[in-house]
From TrEMBL:
Obligatory cofactor(s): [4Fe-4S] cluster
PANTHER family according to UniProt: ANAEROBIC MAGNESIUM-PROTOPORPHYRIN IX MONOMETHYL ESTER CYCLASE-RELATED, BLL1977 PROTEIN
SUPFAM superfamilies: Radical SAM enzymes (SSF102114)
InterPro entries (UniProt xref): BchE-like (IPR051198), Cobalamin-bd (IPR006158), Elp3/MiaA/NifB-like_rSAM (IPR006638), Methyltransferase_Class_B (IPR034466), rSAM (IPR007197), rSAM_horseshoe (IPR023404), rSAM_sf (IPR058240)
Protein name, per record: BchE/P-methylase family protein
SMART domains: Elp3
Keyword match Chloroplast: no
Length: 459
């Protein structure tokens, strides 16, 4: 049996090549590859960096679908199904809105693949695929070792992705993670994670967990296992960890160099509306940031604009705040109503969505605001986010944040990483803005001495 795994692209700008910056290994594909029995031949194509050979023979195609890649995923699925190939779809979008994804696939996986994969393969072999395989539920993730051999030869970023847990115990109203995992978190055994990290031979890791400190006891377990490895890692954490000196110290001792913190808003009413007022319930942002700095941790702060109190003043204050507090990196994005989230249902009920299924609009672009904000127009909000990125990654801001000896420039290595990431962000601000959703990448593929170009419009 031959199975083809596909990780789809978002889209590209008309007349331009696909954006190549910041491409990390899609870990979920390596997890799937590791679930294949020895008699299955597994092929993998990363649509972001190579052409998909639709005419190669394969028994089953598996596509991981995110909301932003839905249009492109459906176009890829249609190509294979036209050729009589069976298509299975999974990923976040399949869990968020299964009835839509089902229209484009022979079978879908809702939730995690691991609990249902062997049954799905058995059914595929016997030609009796069921329409839906449901892998949701509380359980230990078990000792799945991602098969990273599928990534060989591709120019991914030089950082190894690893997973300890899926989900998060909080319930922020915009968050698709909670919509998928139901405000719960499933872990792997910490010892297995450490063993896997050691086996990769890498020294630099991104632990991709949605919130690594959602369960502080579990975070401590992991830190204990990682401490002897002498590695560096970064991860995503909720800000309440700032109140836990012991855990911060354990994280640093285990190699943590920086944390991505969802600060979201400096406006208290916005935080309340998104169900994240706990962000400042036990300490102000200023006090929490002092804590991270005290431990030498770099902070990547993420902000979201578009809640009902947001206007130009809030956007400007947020950028001032991020500069004043010398954040290592910052993201300024507009609110995205992902299907299946409370935010989506609320905006739909209030008649504020510009398109009900905005992710399927062939004219849709990355950066489009797809709802009516209260105090700004969609165009103003889009412009506000771009302005914020240009300010934060402007020369004077990069230079001004450089002299933070506690975190950003705490060592020559940190200084190098700071400069590399901030300069990269400076030059990449406009790269993704305006990517047309579903527009197929125009990679060239060489076969039998000829050059073929795949350049179709998705959807
Ligand atoms: S803390 Fe982060 S990951 Fe958890 S629900 Fe809120 S936004 Fe999602």
């Amino acid at each position: 049996m031959k199975i083809t795994l596909i990780y789809p692209a978002v889209g590209r700008k008309e007349g331009k090549s696909y954006v190549k910056a910041w491409q990390m290994q899609p870990l979920s594909m390596a997890v799937l590859a590791s679930l294949m029995p020895p008699d299955v031949e597994t092929c993998f194509y990363d649509d972001r960096m190579e052409a998909i050979p639709y005419d190669d023979s394969t028994d089953l195609v598996v596509i991981s679908v995110e909301t932003f890649t839905a249009l492109r995923s459906y176009a890829i699925a249609a190509e294979f199904r036209q050729r009589g190939v069976t298509v299975v779809m999974g990923g976040y979008h399949a869990t968020l809105i299964p009835e839509e994804v089902q229209e484009h696939a022979d079978a879908i996986v809702i939730g995690d693949a691991e609990p249902v994969w062997s049954q799905l393969l058995a059914d595929a072999r016997s030609g009796r695929l069921k329409p839906v395989y449901d892998g949701r539920g509380r359980r230990e993730l078990g000792n799945v070792r991602p098969d990273r051999r599928i990534f060989a030869g591709r120019p991914y970023q030089n950082i190894t992705l690893v997973e300890y847990a899926r989900g998060c115990n909080f319930k922020c109203d915009f968050c698709s993670i909670t919509a998928v995992h139901g405000a719960a978190q499933n872990h792997r055994p910490a010892r297995d994670v450490a063993e896997e990290m050691e086996q990769t031979g890498s020294q630099r890791f991104f632990i991709v967990d949605d919130n690594i400190v959602s369960q502080p006891g579990k975070a401590r377990e992991l830190c204990r296992e990682l401490q002897p490895l002498n590695i560096s890692w970064v991860g995503q954490a909720s800000i309440h960890v700032a109140n836990d000196d012991d855990l911060l110290a354990a994280m640093v001792a285990s190699g943590c160099r920086g944390v991505l913190i969802g600060m979201e808003s400096i406006n208290a009413a916005n935080l309340k509306a998104m169900g994240k007022d706990w962000n400042t319930a036990h300490a102000t942002y200023e006090a929490s940031l002092r804590q991270f700095r005290k431990h030498g941790l770099a902070v990547y702060g993420t902000f979201v604009f578009g809640y009902d109190e947001d206007d130009w003043a809030v956007i400007k204050q947020s950028v001032d705040f991020a500069r004043e507090h010398q954040l290592f990196l910052a993201a300024f994005n507009h609110l995205v109503p992902f299907p299946g989230t409370p935010l989506y249902r609320r905006l739909l009920a209030e008649g504020r969505l510009l398109q009900e299924k905005w992710w399927l609009e062939p004219s849709g672009r990355v950066g489009d605001v797809v709802f009516n904000p209260k105090k700004m127009t969609p165009a103003e909000l889009e412009a506000g986010c771009l302005w914020a990125r240009r300010e934060f990654y402007g020369w004077s801001s990069i230079f001004g944040r450089l002299f933070d000896r506690e975190a950003n420039a705490s060592s020559a290595t940190m200084l190098g990483v700071y400069l590399g990431l901030n300069l990269g962000s400076h030059f990449d601000i406009d790269l993704r803005q305006g990517l047309q959703l579903g527009l197929a990448p125009n990679h060239q593929v060489k076969r039998h001495g000829k050059v073929r170009v795949h350049a179709r419009h998705g959807g």
